[in-house]
């Protein structure tokens, strides 16, 4: 399995400045929270998916579809049960609570999908450069991009460790939830130890390559805000402004829902 | 050039001592060492001799990065490492570590190599040149856009070397660069080292534990317990069989053979030199004695019991469609000691993972004790087939050695008494009796490896699979490990070893199969397989020196001891 999320494709989205992509990401986090009517939120989802399609990043969704569906189903069920509205649907479920649940589910999924698109189109190094260009110190920016890198590495180590422990007779599938959690100790301890050991070598390697040797550094990747970036940012800002205006004008609300 | 026409030493180590904070023993004591510009120096010695400590002293990680007490001085081109920051010396002394996975972190090859120059504020145009140049040196041109994770082990290590070369260091220090690599990967790294050796502006300091690979060095420095016990020209040191053995370094086999014969001074080193010397001395081989060895092999073959593992027409396809094994047939009988050889990616690990049910055949069947693995499940199979993974740190999790070894019996819900018996039995088998109370994380790598073996033994499996059991261990530890495995085999366990270490196969295994591109291409007794040097070479495998030597004399033997037995006259 390829542990990295980045998809090395040459689309105009990939070529955008990392700062632009970060602003877009933040924008896509905000946009679904402007409306509460599931139809409006659905429109936002379609928009985000279209953006992902243009970035040729939707293939990565196959890796997380299970998570997306689980989140959606759980959210809808929970809000249907615990929320209340005015129009009874069946049993104790009201229409408004169901719709509210759908909206919330869509909101969460949209933020996850937007994050996925960002990571699929932005290299770790670009994240670091973007943060540096925004005035954040390189050491901190590098720490952020390293954290992003560490996740897939830990997953790969975890896979090797689970093979070793299953060979010794560890059975993760049976037992109640507490027993199952306890059974993960033989997995977690080696994951921690291996990660710490390799982090140690990693920090020596960094130091050996002159990390932090000077207060400044140059970058191999060339990044610059171009006319495309400006165009995209202006278009997106207009979209966001439009959405907020609509919302203030009373569109996209959900009437009759209460907790 | 120095004043006397001698080359000025680029590295001057004088009276260097170092003790890590929290350690009782010093890692280095009174080390004096001078390295001339353009030299190729190999550092050898057992685990814990201080080889890595010496490496990190050269680029200033000691004293600036590590905590501890340093004595003496290290000067690089006349500048003491004490005087300034690490940064200054890392550019002069490029350091590459054994663990290539942990030192690569970028999303593509090009960016990985550019990281060093970026830190030193190299301008963009110059940086592009440095990157291209470095990749050319390690023969990774054309890989610029590849993700490091998708490269083979050998390519990763070469990338790590390039990422350091891009800073254009004057000294390149490689700390056991080939330990974790398969033979093809090793070869690639050695080729890079050889090319760099010819450069006068690059000085090479390489920590290496495979003696056969040190023949090209200008000089060998032997460390033991933090002290330099020998420093001399490579050929001179390699002839000192006694010293190497005493320092826990495997001597060259051909040299040891002539040394044991008592043919002193100018010992030959390579198989070719050995043949010449053999003829010059008028030595001869006894075909009769050799026939006895072959006869012993045959008797052993006949002593095997019932088939315990039966593989018929096994094909395995990964979920992504890649075919890892194709139509493999193999039978392993009770009491065998089988070595599975092949490059990484040849399918050898995929093959053995079928034996304990970790993988299920795509086509064909794998039977253990006559029953298909798919009908038994991994947990039940674990009782019969124990699997010791390469990295003990991927399985050790308990606070004490006892608990770690008791894990298998406990999970199978055995009685308290029974568990205690089994643990002490298993600990005794691996030579760790009475150490059940210790914390496994404070043990050495060799000891942790033995805890891993004990934890599998405690279940009393009939078959024991060991994946690379000697990787990362020094000569003495390797021997101790394999002697343990040999004893288990003599006591009745069926042993399957997956390994790249050819002398281990020659001296301990009896039968071997070579896997190449998902198929078994060679099989037979180790003697038969190792006599097929051409075919082995096609699979990028090279038999140990003494085997090549004896193959030239047409009496394939497997160890120096066997060679001594078949030699007469002189």
Describe the structure.
The complex is a heterodimer of chains A (about 260) and B (about 575). Chain A has about 260 residues and is mainly α. Helices cover about 70% and strands about 0% of the residues of chain A. Chain A has helices at about 10-15, 20-30, 40-55, 60-80, 95-120, 125-135, 140-165, 175-185, 185-210, 225-250, and strands at about 90, 95. In chain B, a hairpin with a 2-residue loop joins strand 20 and strand 21. In chain B, about 50% of the residues are buried. The longest helix of chain B has 17 residues, at about 285-305. Chain B is of the alpha/beta class and about 575 residues long. Chain B folds into 2 domains: about 10-250, Rossmann fold (3-Layer(aba) Sandwich); about 295-570, Rossmann fold (3-Layer(aba) Sandwich), CATH 3.40.50.300. At the A-B interface, helix 7 and helix 9 of A face helix 3, helix 4, helix 5, helix 6 and helix 7 of B.
Order of helices and strands of chain A: HHHHEEHHHHHH
CATH topology of the largest domain in chain B: the name is: Rossmann fold
Strand content of chain A: under 5%
CATH superfamily of the largest domain in chain B, by name, is P-loop containing nucleotide triphosphate hydrolases
Could you give the order of strands across the largest sheet of chain A? 1-2
Tell me the total number of β-strands of chain B: 22
In total, the number of domains of chain A comes to: 2
CATH class of the largest domain in chain B: Alpha Beta
Tell me which protein chains meet in the greatest interface and how many residues each side has. Answer: A-B, 53 and 68 residues
How far the N terminus sits from the C terminus of chain B, by CA atoms, comes to 48 Å
Helix amount of chain B: 25-40%
Uncertain spans of chain A: none
Number of discrete domains of chain B: 2
Q: What kind of oligomer do you see?
A: heterodimer
């Amino acid at each position: 399995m390829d542990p990295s999320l980045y998809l090395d494709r040459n689309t105009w989205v990939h070529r955008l400045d990392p700062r632009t992509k970060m602003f877009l990401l933040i924008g896509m986090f905000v946009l679904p929270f402007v409306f509460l009517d599931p139809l409006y939120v659905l429109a936002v989802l379609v928009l985000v998916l279209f953006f992902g399609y243009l970035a040729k990043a939707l293939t990565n969704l196959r890796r997380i579809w299970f998570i997306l569906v689980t989140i959606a189903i759980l959210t809808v069920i929970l809000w249907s049960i615990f929320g209340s509205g005015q129009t009874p649907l069946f049993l104790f479920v009201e229409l408004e609570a169901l719709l509210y649940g759908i909206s919330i589910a869509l909101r969460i999924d949209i933020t996850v999908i937007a994050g996925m698109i960002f990571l699929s189109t932005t290299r770790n190094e670009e994240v670091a450069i973007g943060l540096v260009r925004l005035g954040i110190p390189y050491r901190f920016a590098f720490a952020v991009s390293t954290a992003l890198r560490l996740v897939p590495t830990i997953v790969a180590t975890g896979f090797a460790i689970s093979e070793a422990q299953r060979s010794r007779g560890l059975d993760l599938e049976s037992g109640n939830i507490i027993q199952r959690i306890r059974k993960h100790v033989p997995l977690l301890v080696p994951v921690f130890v291996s990660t710490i050991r390799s982090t140690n070598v990693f920090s020596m390697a960094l130091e050996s390559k002159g990390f932090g040797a000077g207060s400044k550094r140059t970058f191999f990747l060339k990044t610059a805000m171009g006319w495309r970036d400006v165009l995209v940012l202006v278009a997106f800002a207009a979209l966001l402004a439009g959405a907020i205006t609509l919302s203030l004008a009373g569109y996209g609300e959900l009437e009759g829902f209460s907790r | 050039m120095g004043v006397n026409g001698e080359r000025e030493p680029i590295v001057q180590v004088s009276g260097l001592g170092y003790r890590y904070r929290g350690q009782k023993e010093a890692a280095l004591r009174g080390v004096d060492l001078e390295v001339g510009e353009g030299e190729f120096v190999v550092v050898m010695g057992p685990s814990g001799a201080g080889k890595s400590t010496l490496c990190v002293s050269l680029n200033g990680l000691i004293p600036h990065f590590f905590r501890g007490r340093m004595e003496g001085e290290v000067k690089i081109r006349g500048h003491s490492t004490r005087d300034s920051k690490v940064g200054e010396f890392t550019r002069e002394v490029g350091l590459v570590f054994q663990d290539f996975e942990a030192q690569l972190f970028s999303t593509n090859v090009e960016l990985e190599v550019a990281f060093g120059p970026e830190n030193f504020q190299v301008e963009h145009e110059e940086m592009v040149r440095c990157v291209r140049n470095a990749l050319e040196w390690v023969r990774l041109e054309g890989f610029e856009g590849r993700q490091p994770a998708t490269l083979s082990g050998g390519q990763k290590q070469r990338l790590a070397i390039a990422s350091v070369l891009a800073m254009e260091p004057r000294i390149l220090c490689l700390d056991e660069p080939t330990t974790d690599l398969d033979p093809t990967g090793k070869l690639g790294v050695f080729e890079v080292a050889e090319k760099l050796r010819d450069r006068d502006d690059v000085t090479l300091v390489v920590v290496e534990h495979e003696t056969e690979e040190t023949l090209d060095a200008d000089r060998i420095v032997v460390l033991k317990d933090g002290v330099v016990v020998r420093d001399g020209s490579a050929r001179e040191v390699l002839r000192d069989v006694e010293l190497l053995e005493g320092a826990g370094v495997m001597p060259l086999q051909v040299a040891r053979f002539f040394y044991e014969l008592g043919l002193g001074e100018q010992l030959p080193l390579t198989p070719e030199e050995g043949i010449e010397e053999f003829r010059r001395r008028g030595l001869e081989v006894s075909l009769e004695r050799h026939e006895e060895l072959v006869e012993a092999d045959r008797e052993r073959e006949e002593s095997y019991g019932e088939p315990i593992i039966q593989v018929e027409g096994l094909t395995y396809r990964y979920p992504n469609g890649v075919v890892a094994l194709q139509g493999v047939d193999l039978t392993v009988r009770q009491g065998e000691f089988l070595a599975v050889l092949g490059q990484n990616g040849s399918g050898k690990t995929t093959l053995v993972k079928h034996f304990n049910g970790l993988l299920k055949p795509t086509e064909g069947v794998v039977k253990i004790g006559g029953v298909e693995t798919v009908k038994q499940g991994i947990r039940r199979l674990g009782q019969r087939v124990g699997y010791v993974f390469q990295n003990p740190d991927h399985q050790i999790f308990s606070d004490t050695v006892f608990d770690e070894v008791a894990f298998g019996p406990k999970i199978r819900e055995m009685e308290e008494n029974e568990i205690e018996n089994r643990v002490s039995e298993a600990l005794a088998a691996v030579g760790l009796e009475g150490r059940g109370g210790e914390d496994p994380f404070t043990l050495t790598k060799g000891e942790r490896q033995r805890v891993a073996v004990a934890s599998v033994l405690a279940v009393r499996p009939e078959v024991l699979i060991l994946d690379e059991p000697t990787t990362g261990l020094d000569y003495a530890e390797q021997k101790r490990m394999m002697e343990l495995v040999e004893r288990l085999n003599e006591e009745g366990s069926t042993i399957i070893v997956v390994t790249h270490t050819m002398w281990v196969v020659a001296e301990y295994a009896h039968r071997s199969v070579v896997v190449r591109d998902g198929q078994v291409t060679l099989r037979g007794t180790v003697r038969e397989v190792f006599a097929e040097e051409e075919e082995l070479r096609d699979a990028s495998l090279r038999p140990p020196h003494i085997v090549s030597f004896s193959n030239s004399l047409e009496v394939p033997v497997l160890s120096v001891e066997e060679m001594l037995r078949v030699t007469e006259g002189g």
